[in-house]
């Protein structure tokens, strides 16, 4: 099977749906943030603190190149900002199938405002909950030209529970089996 790259904004469900989709398809799952944390032996928040966003993006680019070459046939959940670095969308579109997972900004903001979600995402960690929705809307709009280079788009706004995630992964797997 071709490698599947899930892209989309922070909190849209790439990691959650990606793991369920890989299980459904019976293929390995790679989360790019987890891969980076293992490689660097440091959490994403510390990498941002020590090297800044630019330093993180350079590490993320190298990780993506490695994963695209080594994890063929896997489902890969990217970080929300992976598509913004020059060449990353071209790399993924050339190496497999890219799927843009979309979810409403309101739902994303509600998920990201949860303390444990906020704490692991340095771009929003210091924000008041009331600032998050505006930031999500503005930042998502800025990133849209990158996300829209995906080959497929899948709206997961209606998924609200873990059980629905599994059902959706099944639906998506069925769809993918017909196109791959
Ligand atoms: N379909 C869903 N229904 C309810 N909550 C979800 C769903 N998908 C994700 N979440 C919640 O939102 C949080 C962020 O999801 P995650 O998969 O980490 O998103 P991403 O990898 O795109 O940032 C998760 O911790 C999870 O609890
Ligand atoms: O959107 C972003 O710039 C980021 C998204 C995060 O991944 P998730 O989209 O899985 O939260 C993580 O890579 C990092 O905090 C930066
Ligand atoms: Mg994730």
From TrEMBL:
Kindly list the positions annotated as binding substrate.
33, 57, 80, 143
Its required cofactor(s), as named, are: Mg(2+)
Q: Does Calcium show up as a keyword for this record?
A: no
Pathway connected to this protein = Metabolic intermediate biosynthesis; chorismate biosynthesis; chorismate from D-erythrose 4-phosphate and phosphoenolpyruvate: step 5/7
Q: Which domain of life is it from?
A: Bacteria
**Which GO CC terms are listed, alphabetically?**
cytosol
Residues holding Mg(2+): 15
EC class name: transferase
Cite the EC number.
2.7.1.71
What are the alphabetically sorted keywords of the record? Amino-acid biosynthesis, Aromatic amino acid biosynthesis, ATP-binding, Cytoplasm, Kinase, Magnesium, Metal-binding, Nucleotide-binding, Transferase
State if Transmembrane helix is listed as a keyword. Answer: no
Q: Name one GO molecular function term.
A: shikimate kinase activity
What reaction gets catalysed by this protein? shikimate + ATP = 3-phosphoshikimate + ADP + H(+)
- UniProt-listed Gene3D superfamilies: P-loop containing nucleotide triphosphate hydrolases
Which compartments does it reside in? Cytoplasm
Biological processes annotated in GO: amino acid biosynthetic process; aromatic amino acid family biosynthetic process; chorismate biosynthetic process
Q: What is its main location?
A: cytoplasm
- List the SUPFAM superfamilies: P-loop containing nucleoside triphosphate hydrolases
The free-text note explaining how the cofactor binds reads:
Binds 1 Mg(2+) ion per subunit.
Q: How does it assemble?
A: Monomer.
Q: Which HAMAP family match?
A: Shikimate_kinase (MF_00109)
The UniProt family comment states: Belongs to the shikimate kinase family.
What is the purpose of this protein?
Catalyzes the specific phosphorylation of the 3-hydroxyl group of shikimic acid using ATP as a cosubstrate.
Q: What name does UniProt use for this protein?
A: Shikimate kinase
Q: Which organism is it from?
A: Sodaliphilus pleomorphus
Instruction: Name the gene for this chain.
Output: aroK
